């Protein structure tokens, strides 16, 4: 038998110079185009729903159409356009409510680039705008109309959703925990230790109080138990801390002067470009906590901070704080530090709280019941 010639191995041609960089740029362009397409589709949908609400409102006012028209409309659309989704009776009622909530807006086709820019970097606005509403998914609008009646609070949640990329479920959680009332409330020395506008940005990054109601800790508990519980629910603690926090370590070891020190929790904030050291304290805030945190921030700045990073931020979380004491304690330290409280159980709504019996009432009734049984 004659020997078959060896099949030559396939040779991968050498890539031209600059191909890798061009490929990276191409992927960015493709993803950007996909994002613009999604934003354009969403903007058109929101405009369509607003216009349908506008037409229904006009018919009801000018021609006396009653509420019975909406079930008929939903049925006719389903029968004649079976492939079209989103026109249930409930959703059409939402379209009417949506128009009535924002009737003063003039929805016109928006440039996709404008919508995309607004979605990425929401700008503070005095009133609702078509750009703001067009950047939010319809499910978010339905939730906001149902749950947030205050105009200023609703606008805050819209901008926070765009800035943080909140899903509908996350938005619902933030509304339930009254995030708009807690943001930026931490007692701090940021204004005197950081240049503007960084000081304002850092202030708005922190909250007071932080809600750790996903933990099952009962008093008395140890600080280490709190720390362990938070790390066991890392995804939830990151959500409560807010967008941009990346976990670095727990009981993060620092060696200074042949001595060992440990930071309870260490994070890096991707937007602020700085480390964030967190100390957890049971009970009330004490002035000496500020000095210890100032020490930790100094060491992190010297040992871990990159030259491109901004100064390390310290956050002291305790169960109670006296703002006057905290302000005096922070006034004498060099590093930017905030003091906030944390809660393990969410406060009851005032109307529900007032309907519950007090401890004294329960004890009195138990005592009376004991006397009767005796």
The CATH class of the largest domain: Alpha Beta
Beginning-to-end CA distance, first to last residue:
112 Å
Rough outline: globular
Q: What share of the residues lie within helices?
A: 40-55%
Question: How many domain modules?
Answer: 2
pLDDT averaged residue by residue: 81
| Overall CATH architecture of the largest domain | 3-Layer(aba) Sandwich
Order of helices and strands: HHHHHHHHHEHHEHHEEEHEHEHH
Unreliable runs: 109-126, 348-359, 369-374
Beta-strand content bin: 5-15%
Structural class of the secondary structure composition? Answer: alpha/beta
Largest β-sheet summary = 7 strands, mixed
Rg calculated over all Cα atoms: 28 Å
Q: Which fold name corresponds to the CATH topology of the largest domain?
A: Trna Endonuclease, Chain: A, domain 1
Number of helices: 17
| Number of β-strand runs | 7
Key structural traits:
single chain; 374 residues; alpha/beta; Trna Endonuclease, Chain: A, domain 1; 2 domains; 7-stranded mixed β-sheet; 17 helices; globular; disordered C terminus
Describe the secondary-structure layout:
Layout: H1 19-62, H2 69-80, H3 89-101, H4 112-120, H5 130-134, H6 138-147, H7 151-164, H8 168-176, H9 179-182, E1 187-188, H10 190-193, H11 198-205, E2 210-211, H12 223-232, H13 234-241, E3 245-256, E4 259-269, E5 274-284, H14 287-303, E6 313-320, H15 323-331, E7 337-343, H16 350-355, H17 359-373
Parallel strand pairs: 2-7, 5-6, 6-7
Antiparallel strand pairs: 1-7, 3-4, 4-5
């Amino acid at each position: 038998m004659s020997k078959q010639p060896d099949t030559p191995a396939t040779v991968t041609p050498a890539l031209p110079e600059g191909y890798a960089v061009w490929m990276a740029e191409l992927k960015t362009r493709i993803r950007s185009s996909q994002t613009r397409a999604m934003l354009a589709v969403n903007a058109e949908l929101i405009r369509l729903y607003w216009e349908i609400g506008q037409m229904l409102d006009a018919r009801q006012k000018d021609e006396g159409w009653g509420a019975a028209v909406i079930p008929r409309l939903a049925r006719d659309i389903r029968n004649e356009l079976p492939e079209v989704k989103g026109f249930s009776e409930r959703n059409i009622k939402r379209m009417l409510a949506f128009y009535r909530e924002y009737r003063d807006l003039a929805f016109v086709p928006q440039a996709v680039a404008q919508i995309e820019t607004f979605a990425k970097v929401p700008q503070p606005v005095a009133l609702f705008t078509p750009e703001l509403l067009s950047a939010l998914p319809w499910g978010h609008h339905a939730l906001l109309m149902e749950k947030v009646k205050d105009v200023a609070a609703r606008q805050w949640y819209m901008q926070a959703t765009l800035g943080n990329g909140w899903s509908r479920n996350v938005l619902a959680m933030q509304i339930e925990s009254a995030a708009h009332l807690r943001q930026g409330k931490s007692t701090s020395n940021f204004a005197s230790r950081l240049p503007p506008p960084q000081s304002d940005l850092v202030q708005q990054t922190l909250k007071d109080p932080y809600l750790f109601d996903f933990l099952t800790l009962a008093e008395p508990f140890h600080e280490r138990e709190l720390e362990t519980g938070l790390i066991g629910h890392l995804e939830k603690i990151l959500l409560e801390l807010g967008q941009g926090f990346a976990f670095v370590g727990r009981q993060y070891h620092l060696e200074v002067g042949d001595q060992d020190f440990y930071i309870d929790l260490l994070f890096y904030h991707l937007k602020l470009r700085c480390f964030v050291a967190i100390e957890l304290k049971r009970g009330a805030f004490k002035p000496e906590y500020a000095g210890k945190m100032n020490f930790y921030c100094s060491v992190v700045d010297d040992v871990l901070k990159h030259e491109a990073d901004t100064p390390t931020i310290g956050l002291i979380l305790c169960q109670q704080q006296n703002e006057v004491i905290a302000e005096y304690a922070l006034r004498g330290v060099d590093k930017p530090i905030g003091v906030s409280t944390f809660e393990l159980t969410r406060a009851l709504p005032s109307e529900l709280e007032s309907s519950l019996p007090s401890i004294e009432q329960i004890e009195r009734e138990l005592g009376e019941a004991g006397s009767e049984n005796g």
